[in-house]
Design brief:
single chain; 712 residues; alpha/beta; Nucleotidyltransferase, domain 5; six-stranded mixed beta sheet; five-stranded antiparallel beta sheet; 18% strand; RBD_domain_sf; RNA-binding
Length: 712
């Protein structure tokens, strides 16, 4: 979590697990920026790293993801403030996974050691002056006006030019105001289909300097389509059938949206403007900005990965996403302007491209039949240890800070302090963290608390509670009721894991266990005291001691900051694809992304999805619009999201491995909480308060990460 928003994570739904390599990437780049061979993380992006006031890593020793769920209500500050939350894969060497391994045990490396060719902090290339970027722009940073194409460059690269006979009938944006280095940037990208006329626009996206999508619209071609180019455009005949928007409509909207000093950014933007039949005087073309020798150009996909650490135009997606491409081009231009030509040249993009091609060729040569997988794994080279980036911090005079157990820092690098209590650690942290740019603060429950609450017992309690929350009982039904009709009605709330008839009651009841919390809650809210299969039924959860605070859990899950702006939609037909749903929901305002869950075994889509919106109010508006809405003959049911991606995945793993039904409907004897468990809850609540105090003391623009590393 950041004291102000500077980090964007792209993971949603099932992509909620990160490895220690990805954590290391994030911490290294946050600590060092572009220096010492550090690069943007591959899975998220830090904006304006040089404005970071510091990095604070809080470690809750011996606690794991399981403890977070068990004491969810006690972690009030954590779940209401920290917006990004991910499952962290296990690590055999936890300290090294945080900041890397030291190549030798010397207490401190010298600047000469760190700048040697074999180290993690290589010297600048002596051939920097020969780099085409340096030859074109020089080494000094310049404003954005230095990177806009001149009129001659536009003519040379086939841009539509005002007054050109080839551009007769083109619309001029009339953005004639003098450009300055503060002029606004806008990313633009189009997808085209081949028609009788040639390349015609079928989709247009425009994003602003903050990456906000201002326009993402399908366009009806004027003439007959010869080739939809679906593999690249993502456009199908079905998608364009209901579209009424014409090119002239888009031209008018773009002209109105662009300020008079706007600078358009795109990758090979000339083809987009030609297809749009529009003329704009001030452009930045990222295919020309990142200059190469002999007139060659880098692809946008490569630049996004090499410079921004972003994967775009993924093969599993149907076609390119113009909003994604426009945003990538915009961020590339922003990076170039902010960092300057010298920093860009230091990336050595030509070498990165060569290495990528060699790796692909090697991978193709190494491809083996299915039966050789084990042998291939056995012959893989040993993993090269990651260098310790704390060394690089020391060289620049930035002393890392470590408070807590000494075991985390065998190298003697940090200012270690073996404190006897969490309170002492907090007091030291409040004093010392403001003076450090990189701090690791360790809190601990204590070995006696962990010993008195073994993981197996905790796991069983959490699993049992989650299973009961996923379970509902419905009835009573008539003796000859139709089970198929009941299943069909309850499936409208979401995917069902199991459905069984309860035989112990005077009249038949059914016990249904759902796969997602939202489905169970939706069933309770929408089907209780309604007529199903000819009977007026009651829908309720199991009455157990653990479920007495279920309503509190549901309320707190809804308030969880990670669920803000996310809604759950059920009642979808299994035949609907992600493309179908994108098309159906395209009219919803501020829709950021759509997640369509899959069955782990069959790989088929579930009958529900999650929609994430840029603004919470837009999510609330969408709830009203979609509830009762019909899609392909199927009536939708919606509600606020309850379970974030990492919890949803964990629920499936635990309930599938457990395979039990919900708790008994009979009254369960209330068991008094043991003194040790009450004490443990108080300690966890106190830890949450300590994190709150430390977090509130941090400067703005501090990256703060809380880790639950587990016991092994």
């Amino acid at each position: 979590q950041e004291k102000s928003s500077c980090l964007s994570a792209t993971l949603f739904g099932e992509d909620c697990e990160i490895s220690h390599d990805q954590l290391y990437e994030l911490l290294k780049y946050a600590a060092l920026g572009r220096s010492h061979n550090a690069t943007q993380p591959s899975w998220c992006r830090i904006y304006h790293q040089r404005h970071l006031a510091g990095v604070v890593v809080i470690i809750l020793n011996e606690m794991s993801q399981l403890h977070f769920y068990k004491f969810y209500l006690q972690f009030k500050h954590l779940r209401r403030v920290f917006q990004q939350r991910f499952t962290l894969t296990p690590s055999a060497n936890f300290p090294a996974s945080l900041y890397g391994e030291r190549a030798n045990p010397k207490p401190q490396n010298t600047a000469q050691d760190l700048n040697s060719p074999g180290g993690d902090c290589p010297p600048k290339s002596s051939g920097l002056q020969r780099d085409p970027i340096i030859r074109k722009y020089g080494e000094k940073k310049q404003g954005l006006t230095s990177y806009t194409l001149t009129l001659e460059e536009q003519k040379k690269n086939d841009y539509p030019i005002k007054g050109s006979p080839d551009c007769k009938g083109y619309m001029y944006t009339e953005c004639d105001q003098q450009r300055t280095d503060n002029s606004p940037l806008f990313g633009l990208d189009c997808e085209m289909c081949l028609t009788v006329k040639g390349n015609e626009v079928t989709r247009v996206s425009l994003v602003d300097a903050q990456g906000q999508c201002l326009l993402n619209e399908l366009v009806k071609p004027e003439t007959t389509v010869l080739n939809y180019r679906t593999k690249y455009s993502g456009i199908t005949k079905k998608m364009l059938l209901p579209v009424k928007t014409k090119l002239s409509d888009i031209q008018t909207r773009l002209k109105k949206m662009l300020p008079h000093d706007a600078v358009l950014v795109g990758h090979s933007l000339n083809s987009d403007l030609q297809a749009l039949e529009m003329i704009h005087p001030s452009v930045i073309d990222t295919s020309l900005l990142f200059a190469r020798n002999a007139g060659r150009r880098f692809k946008l996909k490569f630049l996004a990965k090499a410079v921004l650490g972003k994967e775009i135009q993924c093969e599993e997606k149907l076609g390119h996403d113009p909003a994604e491409d426009a945003r990538a081009a915009l961020e590339l231009a922003q990076f170039f302007i902010e960092q300057g030509p010298a920093k860009v040249a230091e990336l050595n993009l030509e070498k990165l491209l060569t290495d990528e091609k060699l790796a692909e060729a090697s991978q193709n040569r190494a491809a083996q039949p299915q039966g050789c997988r084990v042998q291939k794994q056995l012959t893989e080279p040993p993993r090269v240890p990651r260098a310790c980036f704390l060394d690089c911090l020391q060289v620049t005079g930035q002393k890392p800070l470590l408070l807590g157990r000494e075991e985390l820092d065998p190298s003697g690098l940090c200012q270690s302090n073996l404190s006897s209590s969490n309170k002492q650690i907090l007091q030291r942290a409040l004093e010392d963290v403001p003076q450090s740019t990189f701090s690791i603060i360790q809190f601990s429950l204590g070995p006696e608390d962990i010993a008195s609450h073994p993981l197996a017992g905790l796991c069983e309690k959490v699993r049992s509670k989650l299973t009961d929350m996923l379970t509902i009982y419905a009835g009573p039904f008539e003796e000859s009721f139709c089970l198929k009709s009941v299943r069909k009605e309850f499936e409208m709330c979401g995917p069902i894991q199991s459905l069984n008839v309860v035989a112990e009651t005077y009249q038949p009841y059914v016990c249904i266990q759902y796969e997602v919390l939202e489905a169970a809650q939706l069933a309770v809210e929408s089907l209780n005291e309604t007529e199903v299969a000819g009977s007026c039924i009651k829908v309720q959860r199991p009455v157990t001691a653990a479920m007495l605070d279920c309503d509190v859990w549901i309320k707190e899950l809804e308030l969880d900051v990670e669920n803000e702006g996310v809604i759950y939609v059920a009642g979808l037909k299994n035949s609907l694809t992600e493309t179908d749903l994108q098309e159906e929901f395209s009219q919803l305002k501020d829709l950021e992304t759509l997640f369509l869950p899959k069955d782990l075994q069959s790989g088929k889509h579930r009958n529900c999805c999650f929609l994430k919106f840029w603004k919470p109010q837009s999510a609330l508006d969408a709830l009203e619009v979609l509830n009762g809405w019909t899609v392909k003959g199927s009536r939708l049911r919606t509600r606020n999201a309850l379970a974030s991606g990492h919890l949803w995945r964990w629920i499936r793993q635990t309930t599938h491995s457990n395979g039990q039904q919900g708790g008994s409907i009979l009254h369960e004897k209330m068991e008094q909480l043991s003194d040790s468990e009450q004490d443990l809850r108080k300690k966890v609540k106190k830890l949450d308060q300590y994190i709150k105090k430390l977090y509130r003391s941090l400067q703005n623009n501090t990256l703060c990460i809380v880790l639950f590393p587990g016991v092994n």
